[in-house]
Amino acid sequence: MTTSSRVVPAILTDDDQALPGMIRQAEQFTDYVQIDFMDGDFVPSHSILCRSLYGLTTSLTWEAHLMVKEPEDQLECLRDVGAQRVIFHFEAAESPASVINKARQLRLGIGLALNPETPVSPVASLLDEVDSVLLLAVHPGYYGSQFLPEVLSKIAELRVLAPAMEIGVDGGIKENNISHIAKMGVDTIYVGSAIFRQPDPAQAYQRLQSLAQNPY
Asked: Torsions phi, psi of 132, nearest 5?
């Protein structure tokens, strides 16, 4: 079981003009981020689009979290703008296996995300084909949503099915619950508003990282 977790800042914005500033801000305190994409269809909210990253250079390594229908249509663009991995929602794809296969053909890392109400059992046959599983602990689409602790029971299920799988948790994570989440044996904890909506994002990140890596 994982004894410490890493914190990955999650960038979510619907403002193309704000994106470069958030990227530059993140460069000051981390080398890896997740960038969220929402289509207003799979989730109620809109965000920046893949094309918003054309021409944007960064020292960061980054992955995309696609909260969109037909995620396969976004893969080539995301590869072209520099994503190292794409995490898509199992619920959003007509054929999750086809999305995974296309990502592999494009030499992209690929992960599966599960909404809070989605059990682990429907994705069991896909676990050998992906690099990670991301458990949503909120209903996706908004910064600052309420954390749903019952989602954490899925961590143990996944460990039985795929002991070496990278498991992430995303949504509603703050200083008052991050240690508990880390103790559950999760590898990666994604944090958005508790970093980027704080007066000092770098300090907030460092505090969360400390709590995640020393949860006992």
From this structure: -160, 160
| Torsion-angle region of 171 (φ positive above 0: left; ψ -120 to 50: alpha; else: beta) | left
**Residues that are catalytic:** 36, 170
Q: What separation, in Å, do the N-terminal and C-terminal C-alpha atoms of the chain show?
A: 14
Q: Is the pTM of this model over 0.85?
A: yes
Tokens of 158: 């996944």
pLDDT at residue 140 in the model: 79
Q: How far is CA 151 from CA 13, 91, 168, in A?
A: 25, 16, 11
Q: What is the tens place of the pLDDT at every residue in 132-181?
A: 999 999 987 665 578 899 999 999 999 999 999 999 999 999 999 999 99
Task: Compute and round to an integer the Cα radius of gyration of the chain.
Answer: 16
What's the gap between Cα 154 and its chain centre? Answer: 16
The dihedral formed by the CA atoms of 90, 162, 208 and 199, expressed in degrees to the nearest 10 = -10
Cα–Cα nearest to 162, from 126, 138, 204: 126
